[in-house]
Amino acid sequence: MSAQILDGKKLAAKLKARLKEEVAAIKSKNHSVPKVINVMIGNDDGSCAYANSQKRAAEEIGIEYELKTFPIDISQEELRGHIQQLNQDKGVHGIMLHRPVPEHIDYHLVANCVDTEKDLEGINVSNIGKMILGETRILPCTPASVMEHIKSTGMDIRGKEAVVVGHSGIVGKPLSLLLLEELATVTICHVATSEAGRLQEHVGRADILVVAVGRPELIKGAWIKEGATVIDVGINRIDSGIVGDVEFETAKQKAAYITPVPGGVGPVTVVILMRNAIESYKVQTKGA
Ligand code: NAD
Hints:
Blueprint (H helix, E strand, L loop, with lengths): L3 E2 L2 H23 L4 E7 L3 H17 L2 E7 L5 H13 L5 E4 L9 H5 L13 H8 L8 H12 L8 E5 L6 H10 L3 E5 L1 H5 L3 H5 L4 E4 L17 E4 L3 E3 L2 E3 L4 H7 L2 E2 L6 H20 L4
Parallel strand pairs: 1-11, 2-3, 2-4, 5-6, 5-7, 7-8, 8-11
Antiparallel strand pairs: 9-10
The protein binds nicotinamide-adenine-dinucleotide (NAD).
């Protein structure tokens, strides 16, 4: 078997077209559009590239986008002050705080200052809590992107064995909850699963395998269950370029569906950020 490749660029284009129509409808009804502010500290190359792709996505969809860059030595208090101003600005509907932040800034502390209704990444404590209870449509972007990929296969997630490798607060844990919400049977693996020598065994049971670790080709193609859906979130720079956490060429021979790296999860993640901006706008304008 050779897997069907889940092309993130094509899926992103499809989602963008839908969001563009939604924003056009909002604009003709309300004479306003969602406005997003990206807060960036310093100008790290990776962050600038990501900010550019956000800007392009926003422009394509019709969302207003502004990048606010602050000096690398900004204090935590000053930064929180700026975030509070943005929280109070009725013309701003969504705020994202770009990572990485300098060491003297506590990312989670500052992210938690973002107004819950403007938290575009769905990662402040209040939104994570609401997500657990199924009470919000503002979902963390990368996990939501993974779910879009899985759903794009048309599979029924209910009752499937889903194995998530990686338990970070921004990917593995929230994703496990989203899969659980769809009634998959979810196993979460992490570094200690590997230490215990059990990773291959869990991976081999997965109908849906999602890997978010950050170790080049950690998951061997031979481990994967025949016909599995494999979503590779990992991004690893090696001498020959960028690879994921899954050994792509061999995994492709076993899986039914697989995401490439690059060009899989990443392009859809940016669009989810814009979808969250539209949801935030609707909440703040009371669905106007
Ligand atoms: P993290 O470093 O916060 O967490 C890594 C996880 O991997 C932890 O749960 C850890 O226990 C686990 N782990 C480490 N070594 C392991 C091993 N040998 N076996 C099993 N598990 C192991 O990482 P993160 O922030 O969740 O990011 C993970 C990867 O996803 C990175 O490559 C990152 O660049 C990428 N990423 C991609 C996107 C995207 O949109 N495409 C978004 C976020 C993160």
